[in-house]
Amino acid sequence: MGTENVHPPIVQLSTVDKVLALGRANSLWPMTFGLACCAIEMMATGAARFDLARFGAEVFRPSPRQCDVMIVAGTISKKMYPAVKTLYDQMPEPKWVIAMGNCAISGGPFVFEGQYGIIEGADKFLPVDIYIPGCPPRPEALIEGILELEEKLTGSRRWPRVKAG
Amino acid sequence: MEQQPILDILYVAAFFLGGVAFAIGPFVAAFLLAPRSTRHVSGKTKQLIECGVEPIGDAWIRYGIVYYLYALIFLAFDVDVLFLFPVAVAYNQHFAMRDFVEVVIFVGILSLAVVYAWKKGVFSWERKTYTPR
Fold first, then answer.
1. Which residue of A has its CA nearest to B46?
2. Cβ separation of A85 and B53 shorter than 8 Å?
């Protein structure tokens, strides 16, 4: 499930690792890659109104070889399943996966007895780091997910936490 | 006074080394600091095509080179126009008639290349394919 050991770098120093983690967290490069309606919200997040660029994650790359984050935005149909797997394989380490929306978390509304068309959740075959619930999640929720991922990388939160409600 | 040239060379060498280090340094840093493998779920890390879909066939195929001949003919016109620029600058400075005749001769000789290609059938668009042996 993509959890096998990664060969570590030749040089490993804890201070250098901290600096690298800080750099990676503050400039995450997601993949231009939408599967369903959540991708519309992802596009809105990257566009002018919500402006993901404020958090350094706006460089959506069209090639998996240049990406850090795979945002699984939508339903993973069985037809798309091999493509998603291939794209994940092609991303270089370090890489993270965000499951955006209920479909990518668990299959969402498409789960019923005898369903034959979809994979019930990205974590069935990918090591998912961040889950963003919603159907679809609002752009703010995706931004919050990115911030959570940054926190996972660096161990500290860069932006103040906003209470719900 | 004699130390000045050596100092200059040292300066140039220092800047040269600085430039080389600036260019090669990131490669070395990336080599040392990057993880040396990547996780995979279906063993497709080395697949060349990056759209997620299995590549169909090979990129090394045979295809018609008809356009290549067109490109060669274009080159004839291209060089033609290139040499006409100085002519246009010097035109009509002394004898307009002589300039005109010389341009006509020049363009005429170059046009023979096009006539030759025409005669050889380059302008009829036919796929020239060869079966692989």
1. A90
2. no
- Min CA distance, A62 vs chain B (Å)? 9
Alpha carbon distance B36, B99 (integer Å): 69
CA-CA distance, B34 to B28, in Å (whole number)?
10
CA dihedral A106, A110, A114, A119 (to 10 degrees): -50
Distance of CA B33 to the CA centre of its chain: 36
Entry pTM? 0.72
The region, left, alpha or beta by phi > 0 then psi within -120 to 50, assigned to residue A131 is beta
Could you list the pLDDT tens digit for every one of the 165 residues in chain A? 555 677 888 888 889 889 988 988 888 999 988 888 899 999 999 899 999 898 888 889 889 999 999 999 989 999 999 999 999 989 988 899 999 999 999 988 998 999 999 999 888 888 899 999 988 899 999 999 999 999 998 888 888 888 877
Structure tokens at B54: 């299995």
Whether A6 and B50 lie within 8 Å, measured CB to CB: no
> Which DSSP string corresponds to B51-94?
SSSPP-S-S------HHHHHHHHHHHHHHHHHHHHHHHHHTTSS
Contact B44 A11 (CB under 8 A): no
Q: State how far the Cα of A57 lies from the Cα of B117, in Å rounded to an integer.
A: 56
